[in-house]
């Protein structure tokens, strides 16, 4: 992949991870005002915002090892976000 393509991918993914966070904030605002929804919703906000933050941190990594570490954390937080979304959906069923 050429350097220009890498930069374009990095910028596109940075925008997508920011949108991921913003979409989850908007979703959180639609949740019922129950204590359970607030608690799980906050967990969702925490994990989804960590996705965006860790991608940006990966872009600033000073080594390949640091880059991979940040991406690994990003994947864990994305998986956590999926868990909290699934819990919210199943709890509403």
From TrEMBL:
InterPro entries: 23S_rRNA-intervening_sequence (IPR012657), 23S_rRNA_IVS_sf (IPR036583). It comes from the Bacteria. This is Four helix bundle protein. It comes from Mucilaginibacter phyllosphaerae.
């Amino acid at each position: 992949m050429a350097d220009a393509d890498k930069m374009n991918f990095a910028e596109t993914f940075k925008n997508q991870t920011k949108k991921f966070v913003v979409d989850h904030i908007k979703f959180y605002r639609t949740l019922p005002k129950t204590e359970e929804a607030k608690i799980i919703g906050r967990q969702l906000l925490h994990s989804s915002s960590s996705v965006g933050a860790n991608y940006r941190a990966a872009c600033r990594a000073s080594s390949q090892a640091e880059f991979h570490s940040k991406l690994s954390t990003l994947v864990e937080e994305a998986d956590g976000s999926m868990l909290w979304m699934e819990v919210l959906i199943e709890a509403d069923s």
